[in-house]
């Protein structure tokens, strides 16, 4: 029985070391990559004045993405709105609740600057639509980033590194 425990502990240590080595490799690949190189630029935004009913009724907000940056009329970022938040707000309130009233405010959202190192942003990212990263330069929305954007960037970097 002791041999089985030693084998399981050994397997666990090898798996942990392999995961750690992979994480170090990925961080190394991303060390010199700025956030701007991995973002989705010029995302579809939701004006803060848009009602939840209008948002849920508009096909642009239903089919492609699950979260949208919320902006002022002049395009300044205010926060983030997910379709789940919109549906919850719709079920709780009247049809005149606005996106600006129901959104996750910018102060509570994950925000990055286009020049920030991508490797530094990764530990702050989480799965889920409500954890999209808003990329802001001064008071201008530059883009949005998801874990899928990171995955594509890592795949591209890995493929490029293999060819060199």
How far is the first residue's CA from the last residue's CA?
Answer: 48 Å
Counting DSSP H or I runs of 4 or more residues, the number of helices is 6
Mean pLDDT: 83
Estimate the global geometry from the Cα principal axes.
elongated
- Low-confidence parts, pLDDT < 50 over ≥5 residues? none
State Rg: 20 Å
In the sheet with the most strands, the strands line up as 1-8-7-6
H/E element string?
HEEHEEHHEEHEEH
Biggest β-sheet strands, sense, barrel: 4 strands, mixed
Query: Structural class, judged by helices and strands?
Result: alpha/beta
The proportion of strand residues reads 15-25%
Helix content: 40-55%
Write down how many β-strands occur, each being a DSSP E stretch of 2 or more residues. 8
């Amino acid at each position: 029985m002791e041999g089985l425990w030693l084998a399981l502990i050994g397997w666990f240590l090898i798996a942990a070391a392999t995961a750690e080595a992979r994480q170090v490799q990925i961080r190394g690949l991303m060390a010199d990559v700025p956030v701007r190189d991995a973002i989705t630029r010029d995302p579809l935004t939701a004006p803060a004045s848009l009602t939840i009913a209008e948002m849920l009724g508009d096909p642009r907000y239903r089919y492609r993405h699950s979260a949208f940056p919320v902006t002022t009329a002049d395009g300044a970022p205010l926060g983030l709105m997910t379709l789940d938040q919109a549906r919850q707000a719709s079920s709780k309130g009247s049809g005149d609740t606005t996106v600006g009233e129901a959104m996750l405010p910018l102060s509570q959202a994950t925000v990055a600057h286009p020049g920030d190192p991508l490797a530094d942003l990764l530990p702050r990212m989480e799965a889920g639509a409500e954890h999209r990263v808003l990329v802001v330069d001064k008071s201008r929305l530059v883009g949005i980033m998801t874990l899928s954007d990171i995955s594509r960037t890592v795949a591209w970097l890995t493929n490029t590194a293999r060819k060199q």
